[in-house]
Amino acid sequence: MRDGGGQAVTLELAERETARATAPAYRMLSVVVPAYNEEKNVPVLCERLLAVLDGLGVPFEIILVNDGSKDKTGSVLRAAAAARKEIKVIELKRNSGQTAAMMCGIDHASGDVIIPIDADLQNDPADIPALLAKIDEGYDVVSGWRKDRKDAAIRRNLPSRIANKIISLVSRVHLHDYGCTLKAYRLDVLDGVRLYGEMHRLIPVYASWMGARVTEIPVRHHPRSHGKSNYGLERVAKIILDLIVVKFLDRQFMKPIYVFGGFGMLCLAVSGLAVIWALYLKFFEGLSLIQTPLPLLAVMTFVTGFMCILMGLLSEILMRTYFESQGKTSYVVRERLNFEPTDRPMAEKSVARAKQ
User: Fold this and answer.
1) Same-domain pairing of 85 and 202
2) pTM confidence score
C-alpha cells in the first residue's frame, strides 16, 4: 500500500509539473486596435480576431479605440461591442494619431500580455499564436516582421527600410521591421512607458535598453482592400526626431546637465578663443577689433554658453522633481528575493509619507 501510495503521489506531482510547464505564461490577453476611418475593415477584423482568440482557451479582451473617425466607424464599433462582451470600445473626442490611440488602449488594458494590431486587415490575427509561443519561451517583446510586405515599393516600403536601418544603427537593437504594429508585450515592459509622436514603433528599443528580452518573427502581410493609408515619406523625419528623444531619455535623462552644460562649456571655450585671437590681431597684427567678426562671435558664444548652462541646471531641477515627486528611481529592479511585500523602496515610502 505504501508503494502504491508513493507512486500515486509521484504521478500526481509529475502531472502538476507537466501542467505547469505547458501552462501559458499569461493569465489574460489584451488586443489593442487603433482605428481611424475603418468602417469596412473593423467587422471583418473582429470576426477574425474572435476566431483566433476563442481557440486559445485563455481569457481575452479586444479594445477598439476609435481615433476620431469621420465615417461610420463609431457605430460599427458599438455594434461589435453589443455582440460580444469581450469587445470593448473607447471613443476619442478628436483624431489624436495612432500612437496616442494605442497608448489609450494600453492604459485601459487588463491583460498581462498586450497585442497591438492594425485595423486595416493588413496584419493577420492568425499570427497571434506564434507571437504568444515566443512569449511562452520567456521573451518580453515579440515583434512582427512583414518579410513579404504588400505595400507600395517607393511610397511605403522604401521609407520604412530607411527608417529601420537608421533605428537599428542608432539604437543597436537590430530588428528588420520596427513599423509593424503587430507585436506582443508583457505588461511589465510597458509599465511607466508614455508614448508620444510616432514612438509606439520604438517600444522594442526602449524595452531592450531596460533589459527586456526582445525577439522578432516573420508575420503575414496582406494588401489593403479598403480605405487608404495615412502615412508617407514624412514619416521618416518624424521617426528620426522621436529616436533622438528616446536616445536622449535613455542616455542623458539622469544627468541633463552633461548635455546642456557640455555644449555650454564648448561655447564658452570658443568665446574665450575668439577674444584671445581678436586681441592678438589687434596688438600684434595692428588689426582693429571692428575689422573682424571675432568680438561679435565672442559675445554670441558667451551668451549661448551661459544660457545652455542655465538650461542644464533647470533640467536637473525638473529631473529631480520628476523622480522624487512620483517615488521613481534611477534604476530598474528585475527581481527581489527574501523581501516581504511590505518592504518597499525608500522612494516609495517617502511618497507615501508625503501623501499622509
Assistant:
1) yes
2) 0.69
